[in-house]
Write the structure tokens for this entry.
Amino acid sequence: MIQTLAFYLFALLVIASGVFTITARNPVHSVLWLIMAFFNAAGLMVLVGAEFIAMLLVIVYVGAVAVLFLFVVMMLNIDFAEMRAGFIKNFPLGIAIALVLLAELVLGIGAYKAGALELGVADGSAAPMIGESNITSLGTLLYSKYIFLFEAAGIILLVAMIGAIVLTLEKSAADVRGQQDIGKQNRRRPEDATEMQNPEVGKGVEL
Amino acid sequence: MDFLLSFQLSAPEIILAVAGLVLLMVAAFAGNKSAQTVTYLAIASLVAAGAVVVELFTNDALSQGADAWSGLYRMDAFGNFTKLLIYLATIGCLIVTPKFFDAKGEYRPEYPVLMIFGAVGMGIMVSAVDLMTLYIGLELSSLSSYVLASYSRSDERSAEAGLKYFVLGALASGILLYGMSLVYGFTGSTSYLGIRAALADGMGTGALFGVVFVLAGLAFKIAAVPFHMWTPDVYEGAPTPVTAFFATAPKVAAIAITMRIALDPFGAQSDAWQQIIIFAALASIVVGALGAIGQENIKRLLAYSSINNVGFILVGLAAATEAGAAAMLVYLAIYVAMSLGSFVAVLMLRDKDGNQVENISDIAGLSRSHGLLALCLAIMMLSLAGIPPLFGFWGKFVVFQAAVQADMIILAALGIAASVIGAFYYLKIVKIMYFDDPADVVEAKGETSRWVVLLVTTIFVSPLGYLLTPWLGDLAARAASAMFFVI
Amino acid sequence: MLHTSILLIVFLPLLAAIVGGLGNRAFGNTVVKTITTGSLFVSCLLSWPIFYGFISGTATAEVVPVLQWVQSGNLSFDWALRVDTLTAVMLVVITTVSALVHLYSWGYMDEDPDQPRFFAYLSLFTFAMLMLVTADNLVQMFFGWEGVGLASYLLIGFWFKKPTANAAAIKAFVVNRVGDLGFMLGIFGTFIVFGTTSIPEILEAAPTMSGATIGFMGYRMHTMDILCILLFIGAMGKSAQLGLHTWLPDAMEGPTPVSALIHAATMVTAGVFMVCRLSPMFEAAPVALAMVTFVGAATCIFAATIGTTQWDIKRVIAYSTCSQLGYMFFAAGVGAYGVAMFHLFTHAFFKALLFLGAGSVIHAMHHEQDMRYYGGLRKKIPITFWAMMFGTLAITGVGVYHLGAGFAGFWSKDAILEVAFARGTGLGTFAFWMGVFAALLTSFYSWRLMFLTFWGKPRWIESEHIQHSVHKTPEGAGEDTTGGYQPHESPVSMLVPLGVLSLGAIFAGQVFAPSFLDDAAFWGSSIFFNANLIDAMHAVPYWVKYSAFVVMLLGLFGAWLAYIKDTSIPGKFVDQFRYVHRFVFNKWYFDELYNFLFVRPAFWLGRKFWIIGDQGIIDRFGPNGAAWVVQKGTVAAKKIQSGYLNSYALVMILGVVAAVTWVLM
């Protein structure tokens, strides 16, 4: 009973937060609504017994991603009105597409309810180990069966990192300004830096 | 799981990944001046990986292929064939790259490293026999591509290209993932084997949804209409060597996985997706041809040309037969050579300040100032148009032959008719180069490495290429049969 | 021996044509001229021994295979060179005249800027003609047939900057196509009926087919008649027989050596050759033979009438050729193929001689071709005069039966007249009388040509060509009607061929008559030889034998009267018979009739097809329509490619939704 209540609460809040994320006028509010959505999703995960995923959601998505979003949104002055203009232009078409998709979804759900649609049966190759915690099961799988993918995913992150650095690191600025050379400064003499001029009357100095 | 065997079977990816990491270290410690060295090392590691692929390909004990990493990865003739193409294309692109960025002082060792990781991702993709492996490989190669697209930081168009590619690519990835989750949900498995088994007796609407979404996501990667919109902008904006790369290696990988997905896990349900592929094929041919006609930028034109070519390749997939798959692979091999050759030729079109010449009107009368370059480019264009004595014709021929054998005569007829539209803009380039008054903009300088790539590809697409048809046909047939291997 | 020499004879000219044609600029005039002329002389020297072999009876007919050509179902034929008596006769005619014409062209075409092209064409023509006469099957014969047609087209239009030359070339080509259609249908029909295109096999089977019938255009007709008539239509086109003759006079626009080679000695006789080659077929087709006789006789008289009225020296000879071809045809039509071939043989020499002589006159007269502006040239160009004289003596058939001596034409033409009379049929007699009357006209127009050209007072200053040359008008010249112009004798290269051909015109009949006319062994199986008819020919009454001689004298007298004695007679005659003259002078209004009947309706129809069919339907909905669609599509494709990220994403989503919706439905 309490589980059912909690499910509907979280589910409702996820959807509502999602809607507000899109519709909020202030981008900061949007991000805050997004964080709200993540929290509720984490709640849903707890409900299905995936507490590790729930924690990941909170730590990674709320703690890192969403906060990064928040910073970006606050630092960049994005003109949302302009973005909306494009949105409005394609609005009717978007609505039409959404309606079609909705109709298809309804059809799908209807078929499912009527029993015409069958879900697949998991082949059990990644079933959780009985009596072990979530994190142990996941860890075991990741480091044995899915080690290849796990490492490959690591390379993806590495590439993302390289990409970020390659595209943003500005080394050239330092090169242009040059670095301090104390010896050179010490060797500098007044005659190198100054010059005596005796300009004629009415003529300027040519530097 | 037998780790030793798994390492052996996935050795090309392992070698490349390790090489990538080592080269990254070299880059980090030696700085920008090591760029040239790192490039050579990258080429060497690709050659090494290629040698391993050849070894696996020719190993009689493994001629039936073998699973690795607990059924996530499969070494077979199909993967080996496409990997060889991918590596060759990557090597070709790497050879011609440094000079391009040298002019702007932008060449850094991360570039070859990204290419290597891209190649790793593509290798994983084509060897994937599990949706998860597929997705990981796809993302690895895509991410490298996004970065490469915006590699010219001083060029706004490059940044725009990278951003567009990234955003639309993310959307496509979302579609693909959604499709995969549907497939998993309705079949209970992510492995091709399991999906195939689950779909053997028929397919429900849910799985059908999944198949459509998966194919839509992949259609983005191969730039098939209507998921092609990014292609002209990205191809135009990205630095030319990167565009050359996009048009070759990732294209091969994406088409390969599309083939594999369609024919292996969904192969039993080919009725479900054939019509979509037929539509995409015809639409790609027509839109590619129509789009290309109006272009004034040669890179954009080649982008549409690649869309057009993808359409022809999909004709082979629409047949959904082993002959069709073999034909696609033959076409791919020829297409890689034509595409690489044309882009290298474009790469050599520089004005006197060393900037890339991209306007088609600027190459007017090229035949008079740079006869050999114009000749190579003309051969590429005529080959892309599929004019018979050149090798490009063979690719089209086998694909249409496969379609006809599969009783898709109308498809073949429409495709052939539409290829006439395509011939127009290829011939237009030839006409501009040979018969228009010289614009005298191009100041191509001879660069040995580029000439080597250009001449090798030119010879390949020239009528001499037909000498390779038995060999190429045999390899492609072996590769194709790997997908129809009865489990 | 024969193998090698026939291969050399046929293919040397081809080689020369290729080398000369492709090496046009690279080699220069002299080299190309030497190569082509040299190879032709080699061919010629190799041909005479073959001919002599048949004359002396030592040679036998042979077929020299060259290459396999077509193997398709039951249709199979090869390239092969057939050498028998008929071929040998044609070989010497073709190679001799061609070699001499090549040599003659050195002088005649000396000032032309495109000499290599001219010589290459000449050699190409010779090759095609040799292919035609050596053909062992109908398809190869057709190849040669079309080859000579092409070469003729190219050579008539050699001076392609002259609109009249172009028009003449096209006319020759188009009119020949009409004949070729008949020829092709004939070949197809022959293949259907006999199941083969091999000439020996057809000829062997032909007698058994006589009387068989076939459905054609809804009628039941005799197979052999219909086939032979179709083939004969081809011959009519090539040999300029009445109805399809209109191209020949216009073909005189080509250079004179071409007229001599192609339009007198060789190509135009291809029709006669073909009828003789297929004579066993024609023997099985009485209706077709009657048609051959009638058309030949009609052409013979028709062309002769026109020849009497023309002013252009080459046109006179051209109509004379037409007329002489008529003789050959009716000789073949009455069944005397050997006699027809004999006339072909002698005619080749004296007609080539006349043309080359005319060319020499034209050369001397600064390219003036109108005989009205000639006159008194006898003393100025004596060698040409004598050559023309021998030619005229030959064509008019000067010779006396009881002396057993005469010029070439005497032997062959008189034989034709006698054999036509000897045939005894109504049509044969008709042909005989036509032939006699034509002989009268031949004599008249030939002497008219001679008198106008070589006798009388010079009338040169009237000619615009001469005026340009001497920079005087007729008024400025005053009494001196020569205008001070000095005709000059042609160079040696032109005079040598004239001399050689003169020998032919004088002696060819005398020497070869026994073989050609009487010797069944000489002909062997190469033609149908009717020995009884030949015996009857020799047995005709003396008045028949002398008829030709008498009318020759009459014609000579008439010409002398009108053009030497009293030059006002022609004018009076024309005034008297104004309408007849106009009718004849305007070539019986054939061109106008054809223009009205065929050309204009064809143009009208063509224009309708062009504007309504081609432009209005095919172009509009075909190429132009497709191009329009493509253009609109391009614009649309460009428009959709807006560069906006959200619209790209929208298209992608649309694609997904559409695909999903499609598979759901």
About this structure: Chain B is about 75% helix and 0% strand. Residues 3-483 of chain B form one domain. The mean pLDDT of chain B is 90.
